[in-house]
Amino acid sequence: MSITMKQVNRVLFPILILIAGILVLTRPKAFSKEERMIIRQSDSVMYVTVWPADSAVLRTPCMDLTKTELKSKDLKTLTAKMLVTLRAPQHDGVGIAAPQVGVSKRIIWVQRLDKEGGPFECYLNPHIDSLFGAVGKGPEGCLSVPPMRGLVQRRASVILSYIHPETLEAKCDTVHGYTAVIFQHECDHLDGVLYIDKADTVYVSPSWEAERKSYDYSRPDWWPLP
Ligand SMILES: [Zn+2]
């Protein structure tokens, strides 16, 4: 008895379909189902998580982005929306971390006040490798902790490793002054730490928006406080 090609195909075809289905279902996904909903369904200005109501996400240490996530369209969407959120008039901040928009991944935006024009830059999987230089104390606030302000002790310089959002290359940078303080504040967010955990003094500032805007961030010597 001979087996025809038609009979072979009849057996082989369903097996191939089954294998393809298993591969699709077991393919590593970028972001959790909940995170994908937050990224895709939010407006361009995202909801900013607030302490203590959103402590679950604000207090959870973040995971590094996986290789799949680094190449995903959802990451592009998320980083673009994070920047719009940071720069929205009601926020107008100098930095934001992904837990502040409900995503537990190591992503931050920092305004590089140490660079000409103060550009906003995105850092993926940032890690502070070392802190050095003078210890100083300066005022900090946080989009997730309104309307509080506090005096926080920080180091003047950081060495940071991260992945560049466009080239996906591993990079390293050394940053000084107030911009180094922003990096410390944002990287603390990624470890579930808020500035109020470190502040010597925390106070309610009814005019915290005005107070925040009173600092001349562009002056390299304004931090730390005299
Ligand atoms: Zn913050």
Structure description:
- The protein has a single domain (31-213), classed as Peptide Deformylase (Alpha-Beta Complex), CATH 3.90.45.
- Helix content is 32%, strand content 25%.
- It is built from seven helices and six strands.
- It has helices at residues 5-26, 33-41, 55-58, 67-70, 73-87, 178-190, 208-213; strands spanning 95-97, 107-111, 120-140, 148-163, 170-176, 201-204.
- Strands 1, 2, 3, 4, 5 and 6 form a six-stranded antiparallel β-sheet that branches.
- The termini are far apart.
- It binds zinc ion.
- Zinc ion is lined by residues 142-144, 185, 189.
What about the largest sheet? Answer: 6 strands, antiparallel
Q: How many β-strand stretches?
A: 6
And the CATH topology?
A: Peptide Deformylase
Q: Low-confidence segments, ≥5 residues, pLDDT <50?
A: none
Helix content: 25-40%
Name of the CATH first level: Alpha Beta
Summarize this, please?
By secondary structure, this protein is an alpha+beta fold. The protein contains 7 helices and 6 strands; from the N terminus they run H-H-H-H-H-E-E-E-E-E-H-E-H.
